[in-house]
Amino acid sequence: MSALDGRSLVTGGAGFIGSALVWALNQRGHHDIVVTDFLGADEKWKNLTPLKFADYLEADVFRGAVRQNSAALGQFTTVFHLGACSATTERNAAYLVDNNYSYTKELAAWSLAQGARFIYASSAATYGDGAQGMDDKNENLHALRPLNMYGYSKHLFDLHAQREGWLSQIVGVKYFNVFGPNEDHKGDMRSLVNKAYQQILTTGRVQLFKSHRPDYRDGEQQRDFLYVKDAVEMTLHFASHPRGRTVGGLFNLGSGEANTWLTLTRAIFAALNQTPQIDFIDMPEVLRGKYQYFTQADVGKLRASGYERPLTALDAAVRDYVQGYLVPSRKLGD
Fold it and tell me: Where are the domains of the chain?
C-alpha cells in the first residue's frame, strides 16, 4: 500500500503545478482529494473545472482549522503542499515569511502529527546564482544565498526542516523552470512559452532579454526547462513508495539539461510552423542583480530514489503544450 491509496490534500490546487497534480491523480483514478487555494479575482478557478475532487476550502479557512487541529478536516494519507506566493518579484517580505514559511511550518507539523506523508514545494530559487552549486545532496544549506525574497522564504523552511530533523520523513521538491498548461493566470510569472505564444499571435515576433554579462551572448542564458507533466510525475513518485519504505529529503526536479532561451524560442516557432523572428530588449534594472544566467538540475538523487520514467524532450514538450493546449485554449482534463 502506498501513500496514494488514501485521502489526499493539495494546497495551491487551483494553481499551475497544483492543478496539474490533481489532474495526474485523476489520471490514476484518485478522486478523494481536498483542494485548498486562494481563488481571488483572477481566473485560475478555470483550472479546476475539468478536475474531480471531493471538496474545496479557501486556504485561510483551512489554515485556521489546522491551527485549531479541527477534527472536521478528517485524516489525510498524503499532503501535497504546493500553495505559496511564487512571484519572484514580490517585495513584501512579511507576507512571504507568513505565507511561504510560517504556513508551511504549521502544515508540516500538523501532517507529521497525524502520520500523513508530507511533500512540499521548495524551489531552485534557493540556490541563488549557483555559486555554491545546485546539488541536492549537499547538506550545507546555510551556504546557499537566494537572490530574492521568494527564494529566501522557501530556503527558511528548508533550514527549519533540517533543524527539526524532519528531512528524513518529508520531501521537499526543488522545481526548476516548469512550463505547461494551466499557467495562464500567472501574469508576469508565466513561462516564456506562454508569453511568446501570445506575442507571436499579436506581432509575429518574440522579445528576449539581452545578456548583461560578457560571458553570455544575447539569448544564450541557460535554464533547466521542465514540462509540467514530468514535474507532477516526479512529485507523485515520492508518494508512491510502499508504506514503511519512505524516502525523505530535498530533491531537484528538473530535466537535467540546460537549454538556451534561443533553443526554447525556436521550438515555439517550430510548433507553430513559423520562421523565428526574435528581438532582444534590455533587461529591467531591477532584475539585473537577481537574474540567474545558468540553471541545471542534478537529478542523480531523484534517479537514485527509484524514479525511472524517461523525460519529455524539450521540443516534444513545447509541441504538446502549444498544439495541444495553447492553440485550442484547453486546460488539463478538458
Answer: 3-179+225-255+296-311
Concerning whether 227 is annotated as a catalytic residue, the answer is: no
For residue 23, the tally of other CB atoms under 10 A from its CB is: 21
> What is the distance between the alpha carbons of residues 244 and 267, in angstroms, rounded to a whole number?
43
Q: Give the SS3 label for residue 9.
A: strand
Per-residue model confidence (pLDDT) at position 247: 84
Cα 194 from Cα 181, distance rounded (Å): 9
Whether 150 is a known active-site residue: answer yes
| Cα 242 from chain centroid (whole Å) | 25
DSSP assignment string, 36-70: EE--TTSSGGGGTTT---SEEEEHHHHHHHHHTT-
Q: Is the pTM of this model over 0.85?
A: yes
Rounded-to-integer distance, Cα 123 and Cα 188, Å: 18
**Contact between residue 158 and residue 250 where contact means Cβ atoms under 8 Å apart:** yes
d(C-alpha 303, C-alpha 305), whole Å = 5
pLDDT band at 133 (very low <50, low <70, confident <90, very high): confident
pLDDT at 3: 59
Overall average pLDDT of the 148-160 stretch: 94
Distance CA 58, CA 39 (A): 7
Q: What cell does 137 get?
A: 545532496
pLDDT tens digits, one per residue of 144-153: 999 899 999 9
- 79/33 Cα distance (integer angstroms): 10
Q: What is the CA radius of gyration of the chain?
A: 19
Please say whether the beta carbons of 121 and 82 come within 8 A.
yes
Set 101, 103, 120, 150: catalytic member: 150
Cβ(253)–Cβ(173) below 8 Å: yes
Tell me which of 186, 195, 210, 290 is the catalytic residue. Answer: 186
Distance between CA atoms of residues 199 and 22, nearest Å: 30
- What architecture does CATH give domain 3-179+225-255+296-311? 3-Layer(aba) Sandwich (3.40)
Q: What angle do CA 18, 57, 1 make, to 5 degrees?
A: 60
